[in-house]
């Protein structure tokens, strides 16, 4: 049976068709969702009570960089997870790293906290400390909480994961690092355990996997865990051994793309080891495993002496977001629609879900599964999607993005892309994602009523944002 989603052909949307799409796209979303779910759906089992939660995050993996989406890159363990779980066909992140991670932990658009782009250099920008986070609410509900790998929400040890509800933390504070020496691009230390810099040998992919496996092995069966395991690849710099590169020598001609593929396959094997640890511990049936990417893939990278002394790159070809438009950093689908899998045998059976969802939905979903109360200071805008994962019908959703240079709003089937950081200035583009997921046909000139409604909502959303805090240090 063909597993790929077939979208309807692109065509202009008439005024009558717009009216028929009640709620700015609910009917279209429902039809698309039913079509995708019917591709291979089984009845969901009973919802688990307080399962373990394991969140696996790839760094800059594109839609077409995983095998189950048709990539030439070998990702057998990720593919196996997809084959036995729920594949989300319209799962959204933010265009870049820090914003996505903030949205996961706070359950809201990251622009509400002034986080519009990656926190870089020696910036002191951080999340608020007076509202709680996903980690703290799960900790307070009795979960053991651990962060492994990339943090990127506070670059100083005192602003690391332990400050935000994680009982244990291990990995790196910045947005990238030398995979072997574990230093940041400007030479600053970044590898830490529980707020103290440490030095270790080994590839970051292996160290992140080893720590995740260790935490699983020593976990207390009487206490559920939440492990947030964020890999460092396939973000540059790409430093892979020949054993990972060799399988692609004949199939991928471009050297940069080969390195990228090697990093993906290395990570996939690491994920396989983590999943094996769950099996050996005999907790697979009570562990919700989620795999996502933090944003779309990056197209290329030009090296400079300011980054790692010019030792790596340039990379002229990196990820692949086909068939979607554009790259990491953009609000077009290629920048924000990411691979996403949810797996828990016995509850989530094999299916594809065509309804839209967002990383900000993880907080309310995990909280509901854990029976955890969401603190009132956390003004969560995400939704519990557990019934959506079970195959039930979803409703119309609204998602908002602010990168500082671009704004976007998806409302039902419709998506407004605004060029510029001020909704009152700049050009607008309008797309119907149900019929034009590749954003080829701008309907702003013909669908003026829809455009005005989305523009008004975009302005309202923008008014809720906070200005970025001063971030000294530059990039």
From TrEMBL:
Keywords: Calcium, Hydrolase, Metal-binding
Domain Sulfatase N-terminal: 51-372
InterPro entries noted in UniProt: Alkaline_phosphatase_core_sf (IPR017850), Sulfatase (IPR050738), Sulfatase_CS (IPR024607), Sulfatase_N (IPR000917), TAT_signal (IPR006311)
SUPFAM superfamilies with a match to the protein in the record: Alkaline phosphatase-like
Pfam family, one: Sulfatase
UniProt-recorded Gene Ontology molecular function terms: arylsulfatase activity; metal ion binding
Family: Belongs to the sulfatase family.
Name of protein: Sulfatase N-terminal domain-containing protein
Source organism: Candidatus Glassbacteria bacterium RIFCSPLOWO2_12_FULL_58_11
Lineage: Bacteria, Candidatus Glassiibacteriota
């Amino acid at each position: 049976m063909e597993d790929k989603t077939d979208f309807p052909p692109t065509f202009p949307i008439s005024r009558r068709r717009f009216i028929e799409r009640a709620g700015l796209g609910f009917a279209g979303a429902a039809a698309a969702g039913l079509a995708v779910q019917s591709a291979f759906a089984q009845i969901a089992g009973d919802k688990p009570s307080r399962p373990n939660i394991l969140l696996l995050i790839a760094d800059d993996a594109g839609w077409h960089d995983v095998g189950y989406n048709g990539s030439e890159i070998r990702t057998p363990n990720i593919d196996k997870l997809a084959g036995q779980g729920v594949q989300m066909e319209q799962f959204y992140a933010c265009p870049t790293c820090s914003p996505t991670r903030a949205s996961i932990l706070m359950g809201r658009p990251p622009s509400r906290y002034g986080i519009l782009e990656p926190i870089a250099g020696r910036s002191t920008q951080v999340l608020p400390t007076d509202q709680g986070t996903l980690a703290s609410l799960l900790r307070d509900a009795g979960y053991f909480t651990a962060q492994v790998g990339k943090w990127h929400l506070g670059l100083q040890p005192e602003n690391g994961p332990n400050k935000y509800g994680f009982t244990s933390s291990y990995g790196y504070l910045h947005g990238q690092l030398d995979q072997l020496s574990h230093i940041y691009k400007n030479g600053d230390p970044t590898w830490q355990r529980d707020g103290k810099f440490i030095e270790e040998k080994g590839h970051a992919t292996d160290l992140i996997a080893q720590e995740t496996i260790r935490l699983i092995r020593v976990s207390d069966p009487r206490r559920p865990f939440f492990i947030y395991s964020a890999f460092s690849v396939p973000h540059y710099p790409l430093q892979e051994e020949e054993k990972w590169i060799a399988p692609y020598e004949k199939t991928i001609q471009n050297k940069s793309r080969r390195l990228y593929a090697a990093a993906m396959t290395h990570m996939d094997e690491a994920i396989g080891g983590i999943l094996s640890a769950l099996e050996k511990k005999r907790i697979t049936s009570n562990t919700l495993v989620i795999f996502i990417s933090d944003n779309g893939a990056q197209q290329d990278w030009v090296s400079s002496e300011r980054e790692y002394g010019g030792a790596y790159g340039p990379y002229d070809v990196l990820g692949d977001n086909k068939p979607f438009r554009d790259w990491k950093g953009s609000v077009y689908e290629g920048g924000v629609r990411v691979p996403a899998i949810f797996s828990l045998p016995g509850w989530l059976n094999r299916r594809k879900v065509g309804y839209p969802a967002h990383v900000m939905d993880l907080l309310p979903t995990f909280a509901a599964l854990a029976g955890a109360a969401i603190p009132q200071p956390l003004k969560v805008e995400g939704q519990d999607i557990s019934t959506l994962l079970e195959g039930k019908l979803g409703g119309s959703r609204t998602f908002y993005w602010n990168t500082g240079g671009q704004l976007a709003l998806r409302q039902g089937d419709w998506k407004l892309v605004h060029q510029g950081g001020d909704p009152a200035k700049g050009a607008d583009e309008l797309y119907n994602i149900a019929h034009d997921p590749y954003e080829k046909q701008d309907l702003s000139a013909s669908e003026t009523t829809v455009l005005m409604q989305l523009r008004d909502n975009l302005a309202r959303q923008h008014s809720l944002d906070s200005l970025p805090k001063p971030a000294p240090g530059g990039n």
